[in-house]
Amino acid sequence: MGFFRSLKGDHPDTVGGPSASKPKYQRRYHELDPAYAPPPGPPPSYQGPSDSSNTTYDNSANFAPPIGAPPSYTSRDTSSGSTYNDQVDYAPPPGPPPSHRKTVEEPAPYHDWTSIPDTALLPPPPTLEHKASPTGNASLTDAIRAHRWCEANQLIKPHRPTNIEAARVKNGDIALVRPREYVGSLSTTSTGVWNGSTGAGSKDSCLITSLPLYFVAVDSPFHTEAAKTIYFEVKVVSFGPGRGNDASSLAIGFCAVPYPTWRMPGWERGSLAVHSDDGRRYVNDTEGGKDFTAPIQAGDTVGIGINFTIPDAPPDYGASPVQGMLLKGEVFFTRNGTRENSWDLHEELDAETEFGILGLDGQYDLYGAIGTFGKVDFEARFDSSSWLWQPS
């Protein structure tokens, strides 16, 4: 035990023994290991005052950094001996460093929701649609039959007319094709003028022109870069007895083919028409149509037309129309030589509308269509020289 105690105890120093007087900082290291205590005084490289004077060194004064900017700093005149303000002369540049990324997204630009938007380019709002006609409605059986027929017989693609066909249409040399459902007489009195008469109690039937009045291949404004108007007239000579409780009626309009000829134009897909009994317009509408004009009377000469034009270029862009855009279509109606009313073919439609304007927007060939029900005497006019209304 004595041996280990002697190793752990105090040992005499080489010079002076354990009781020798030493500076305070040496005594502190001596408590740990006196053999490795630092030598007294500053390092040998220090060129300050002589250490023989036993002077106490003030590190804050003797080892402080030099006054002023570093030697590489040249933006200020150091010859004047000016005192530099670190907060001004060495302040960091304003703003975040270049590598800084925003972590919070800026709010969206303010939108003035109280301003009234420009609705000039929007389609007009939909007209109130009726569920049934107040004057006459076909049987549900005929409607279901026609709907299934249309599903089985899709619209045919446009075809390019021959030179003879194009010339006949241009000259108004148009014939009416008599369907199986048509009961009555049908004859031509001159080029492009046809007289028809149906018997009392006749069911719905649709007469369709032998040639399209509008050929996509040669009439589309996308091809010609010019507007295209198709039009014809029908004079109602007289109305006789209808069928059952429903009054006789006539419809004038257009359709794409094939079309179920036991249905009035406007009732099935690819067709539109104005009906005489209620004055409503029907566009691919199997229900009650939309209010449009006064009922057509005996002695009236009515006309139906569509004016196709290239759509307006989008504002602020100056872009020219391109193939694939929809043509603008205005359907207009005349009575006794006066233009009476019209509607935008691309008007906003109700969500319940099943077929929209399928077949009528200038992408299919369009034929003239005349519908009859009950006893009707009429005269159809496709020759422009016989029209009461004349294009301006």
> Which sequence of strands runs across the widest sheet?
1-4-13-6-7-8-9
Provide mean pLDDT, rounded.
80
What is the terminal separation in angstroms? 134 Å
Report the helical percentage. 10-25%
Contiguous uncertain segments of 5+ residues: 1-30, 315-323
The rounded Rg comes to: 50 Å
Decide which structural class fits the backbone: alpha+beta
| Shape type | rod-shaped
Number of strands: 14
Biggest pleated-sheet summary: 7 strands, antiparallel
Count of DSSP helices?
A: 8
Share of residues in strands: 15-25%
Order of helices and strands: HHHHHHEEEEHHEEEEEEEEEE
Folded structure, characterized:
This protein has 392 residues and is α+β, with helices and mostly antiparallel strands. It is 13% helix and 22% strand. It is built from eight helices and 14 strands. The chain is rod-shaped and about 140 Å long.
Core attributes:
alpha+beta, single chain, 22% strand, 392 residues, 14 strands
